Structures are given as C-alpha cells and as structure tokens.
Fold these 2 entries.
Entry 1:
Amino acid sequence: MTNSIEYIKLAKEFADKYGIEYLDRLITLAENKNLPNTQSNLTNTNQVNQEKILEEVIAAGFQLNPWLKNLILLNSFEVVRQAITVVEENEIWGNVHNREGLLVEAILH
C-alpha cells in the first residue's frame, strides 16, 4: 500500500468518525499555520513539548488516533487544555457520548 492510499484511508476514517466539516477544518489549519510536518525532524524542545501535551491528553483518558494526534499537535497547549476541560465539564452533566469527537469539536471551535 502506498503512502497516498494510507493517507486517503486515514482521511476517510477521520471524516466517517468526526464529519467532513472537521476534516476540512483540519486541512485548513494545517495549510494556514505553516507548521512543520509532525513526522519531520523536530528540535529537542519542540519534541519534548509535543510529547508533553500528548501525555496530558492520554492521561485525561483519550484514545489517540493519527488524525487526533495531528490535530492536537497543530494547536497550542492552551487550546488543547481548554478542549479537555470542555469534555470534562460536559461529562459532569452526562452530555458526552463520544469523548474524542467532543475533544475534536472543542479544539476546532
């Protein structure tokens, strides 16, 4: 399987799970931020910071898939932490049916 096919399958999986509008938003974020590819060589500081936020998300009980991981890495710590808080607050009221989906929605809004 080529890399292109893998990326297309991941995009379809993301769109099926979170909706096409979120996939469009993720693409727009990636294009507009001019951020380095998460698979490229990163400076030690940047890599440590990325690992830290991912650890926080995992510690909060979220299951990471490649798309969610990239979305998290495309946003600031503050945005991701606020999104985690949104999910946790909604859980108190029993309003969460898909934690990862709500996390995506909170990050993108």
Entry 2:
Amino acid sequence: MFDGDRLRRLLADRGMSQSELARRVGISQASVFRLVKGEAYGSKHLHRIARELRTSPSYLSGETDDPDEGAPPPPPAPPYQAITLQVLLPGEAALAQMFEGLLMAMDRDLPLDEQARLLAQRLPTGLSQLRDLMPALPKAAAAKPQPSRPTPARAPR
C-alpha cells in the first residue's frame, strides 16, 4: 500500500514537483498524481521513487515512520558550481572576420577534429583581440548591470 500523504510531503520537503519526479523516474506525471491522491495502491517503480526522494520504499509504503531509515545516502556535491554570466560580444560582422582569420591560419589538410581542436585553442586569443575593439562601457554601467539589452558593437570599417 502506497502512502500518498507521505509522497506529497516528501515532494514538498524536497522542493520537487510531480512532473520533475515523474521525469526522473521515467513514468508519467499522471501516475505520480494518482499515487499522491491515493488513487493507486502501488507502483513497480517504488524503489526508484524512493531513491529520487532520498527515502526508503518501506517509508513510502507505511511500513516504517522514519523517512531516513534505510534511505540511500545523499548524492555527493558536484565539484563545480554553475554560474550565469552576462557577456557582451562584438557584432556578427566582427565575429565573422575573427573566425575567417582563425580559419585562414589553419592547415586545411589536417583532419577535421584536429582543426576543431586548434580553433578551440586559438579562440581565446581571437576573442581577446576583439575585446580591444569593443567600446568602453560607462563606469556606472560597468559597476551595475542595466536591465536593458546591450547594443552590439559595430564592426570596424
């Protein structure tokens, strides 16, 4: 017997939606909804549901009252942190000119994967040279991001 109230509380505690749990487990959101509402008495995916919610199948089925008893350990923290940066790039014409210069310096007889690796190595240098062509931002704009969209720089003529 599946305890829908426990499932609902765990979803709320974990900050996870029914659709997110369904996606992680590989079932439909409607299946999760039926479990939460008590319209379904069990699921062959009970172990996967419990693992995603960091609890035990016995807690979800009402056999134990401790959600941590028999629960899998929490996943390790990733060794990196995702951040979002706002980047201003020159206009399309300037980028095309930079890529053309990088590609002209390539040996076209090299295999494509080697050309791609060389292009990746040279890209930071090309971008740093373009940075010198970017117009300077006013000090207030550099210190505090503006909510409006930045205007792309025009290519030098």
